[in-house]
Write a structure and sequence with these properties.
Elements: E1 2-5, E2 12-13, H1 14-21, H2 26-34, E3 38-40, E4 43-44, E5 51-52, E6 57-60, E7 78-81, E8 85-90, H3 107-114, E9 122-123, E10 126-127, E11 138-144, H4 147-158, E12 163-171, E13 177-181, E14 184-186, E15 194-196, E16 204-212, E17 216-223, H5 230-237, E18 260-268, E19 275-279, H6 284-294
Helix pairs in contact: 1-2
Length: 296
C-alpha cells in the first residue's frame, strides 16, 4: 500500500497527480481505479477525472503491470537525448509498438532494452510513445523518458505545437509548391486504408519541390495534423503518389521501400520550454534514386 498526501492549493485530476508522483502511467492509474485499488480520504475513487484538493490523502494498493513489451537489442540511432526525452531516427520497416495483432519485436522493444525506466512511461503497449510513424516510414521520433514529459509532449502534439517536416519522393508531375487541405477518414471498403472523406478529420499538408527529373520529384513536406497515412493519402489524391507506396499507388515500380522520411522536428522542451530542433539526414537511397533517374 502506498500513501500520498496532496499538498497544493490548486485542484488537480487524481490520475494526473498519481502519474506525476509515481511510476504509474495515467492509463495504469485508470486500470487501478477500475479495480477499486485507489482511495481518496478512505473512499474508493470511481473516475480518473476525480479532482483532489489540498491535504487529500490518496492510498494506492499497488499492482505489478506487465508492460506487454519484451526488450530486444536493436541498433538505435539516437539523435538527441536528455533526462526528459530522446529523439531517435527510426529505420524503415520496423513497427513502432505492438498491437492486438502483432506481438513481435518493435521499436519500443529496443527502447526499453536500452532505457528500462521507460517501460512505465505512458501506455503499457507503447511506453514512451507520444506520436508514431508508419512501419514503412523512416525518420525522427520523439520518445518520452518520464510521465511528466509524456503528458506534456502528448498535449503539444494534440494542440499542434510541434513542427514536423518530411522528405518524400513522388511520381508524376507536381507544382513547385502547394497546400492540400482535405478531411481524412477510414476507407469505406478497405479497413487498412484511409481516404478523403467529407465526414473525416481535418488534415493539412503543405509541400515544396526541392529536386526533380522527368518523372519523379523530391519534396519537402510539412504537416500540421497527424492523421493516419496523411501524407500518403494527400499526395496520392493529387495524382502524385509516393514512390514505393503500393497501398495508395497503381505504379508497381518495384521500389525497395516507401520513400518517405521524417527529417526535421521542432518543439519547445517540456522542462524548460526552450525551443529544440532536430534535423536528420536525407537517406542515401533518396538521393540515389534521383541521381539514377537524372542519368537515364
Amino acid at each position: 500500500m502506498k500513501k500520498i498526501i496532496y499538498k497544493n492549493d490548486k485542484d488537480i485530476r487524481i490520475d494526473l497527480f498519481i502519474s506525476n508522483s509515481t511510476s504509474y502511467s495515467r492509463s495504469q492509474v485508470s486500470k487501478l481505479i477500475s479495480k477499486g485499488m485507489i482511495k481518496k480520504n478512505g473512499f474508493p475513487v470511481l473516475k480518473a477525472s476525480t479532482k483532489i484538493t489540498n491535504d487529500d490523502e490518496i492510498k494506492i494498493t499497488e499492482l505489478i503491470f506487465d508492460s506487454e513489451v519484451r526488450p530486444a537489442k536493436l541498433n538505435l540511432d539516437i539523435r538527441y537525448e536528455d533526462k526528459d526525452l530522446i529523439v531517435v531516427s527510426k529505420d524503415e520497416g520496423i513497427i513502432v509498438h505492438p498491437s492486438d495483432t502483432y506481438k513481435g519485436t518493435t521499436l519500443v522493444s529496443g527502447i526499453i532494452e536500452k532505457y528500462p525506466e521507460i517501460a512505465n512511461v505512458g501506455e503499457s503497449q507503447r511506453p514512451g510513445i507520444v506520436h508514431r510513424l508508419d512501419k514503412e516510414t523512416s525518420g525522427l521520433m520523439v520518445i518520452a523518458k518520464t510521465n511528466k514529459s509524456y503528458e506534456n509532449l502528448k498535449s503539444k502534439f494534440r494542440s499542434r505545437e510541434i513542427e514536423k517536416e518530411y522528405v518524400a519522393i513522388v511520381n508524376g508531375p507536381i507544382k513547385n509548391k502547394g497546400i492540400i487541405e482535405a478531411p481524412i477518414g477510414r476507407h469505406p471498403t478497405n479497413k487498412i486504408k484511409r481516404a478523403l472523406i467529407e465526414s473525416g478529420k481535418n488534415a493539412y499538408t503543405s509541400y515544396e519541390k526541392i529536386d526533380e527529373n522527368n518523372n519523379i520529384s523530391m519534396l519537402k513536406v510539412n504537416i500540421l495534423t497527424g492523421r493516419t497515412h496523411q501524407i500518403r493519402v494527400h499526395l496520392s489524391s493529387i495524382g502524385c503518389p509516393i514512390v514505393g507506396d503500393n497501398l495508395y499507388s497503381n505504379n508497381k515500380n518495384n521500389a525497395s521501400r516507401l520513400y518517405l522520411h521524417s527529417i526535421r522536428i521542432k518543439f519547445n522542451h517540456p522542462s524548460n520550454n526552450k525551443e529544440i530542433e532536430i534535423q536528420d539526414n536525407i537517406p542515401k537511397e533518396f538521393i540515389e534514386i534521383i541521381e539514377s533517374n537524372n542519368n537515364e
